[in-house]
């Protein structure tokens, strides 16, 4: 299932996994609640939050934008690959767009699994791949200026 | 061929454009597209090495192809 619903601009639900983009505050608890099944013994939730500085320079807020259609498709591909690589149950990846204040959650990667090790490993792999592969741009607003922050995006995702 | 060019991040700020449709010769590649816009917006040349382009996956062939420019975070 693909499209937008509720707080989500775009979402993909497949085999119990969930991938979405939103401009609203991310409801981490709702994601966690929907993810776990009775045979899961662990749920690992990673939240990326807006830090108040970059290399010591005070940050006022961040803005995220993305190529929505491609971003959610890449998120889903990452999730499917991780689910096939680790002994986990379900995975959810949700990224927020727009202007975010210090301390707000920009991204959630949540993994439910029968055992904790796989859940931790899959969640770490999820956020690492997201930052490397998903076309999302981040603008940092600081006192007296702003700058687009470039990361370690891997253009091979386009091949 | 007619392309829809999408701009993100720094390239959107430089051009003031988020999207634009334009005609190119059949088979035009990224460098051709980029050169066209760099002529209009010379500051783009500073970012040529970091620009990328793609047609979205999973879409059926369309008279309007989509390309997008700029390197994400």
Please describe what this structure looks like:
The complex is a heterodimer of chains A (159) and B (73). Chain A has 159 residues and is α+β, with helices and mostly antiparallel strands. Helix content of chain A is 28%, strand content 43%. Chain A has helices at 28-35, 68-85, 116-133, and strands at residues 2-5, 8-14, 17-22, 42-49, 53-54, 57-66, 90-96, 98-101, 105-113, 136-142, 145-149. In chain A, the strands form two sheets. A six-stranded mixed beta sheet of chain A has the order 1-2-3-7-9-4, sandwiched between helices. In chain A, strands 5, 6, 8, 10 and 11 form a five-stranded antiparallel beta sheet that branches. In chain A, strand 1 and strand 2 form a beta hairpin. In chain A, helix 2 packs antiparallel against helix 3 (116-133). Chain A is globular. The relative contact order of chain A is 0.22. The model of chain A has no long low-confidence stretch (mean pLDDT 91). By secondary structure, chain B is of the alpha+beta class. Chain B is 25% helix and 23% strand. Chain B is built from two helices and three strands; from the N terminus they run βαβαβ. In chain B, strands 2-1-3 form a three-stranded mixed beta sheet. The longest helix of chain B is centred in the middle third of the chain and has 11 residues, at 30-40. Chain B is globular. Chain B starts with a strand and ends with a strand. The model of chain B is unreliable at 54-68 (pLDDT under 50). Chain A binds chain B through residues 65-67, 69-70, 73, 131, 134-139, 148-151, 153, 155, 158, and chain B through 6, 8-10, 13, 50, 52-54, 56-58, 68, 70-73.
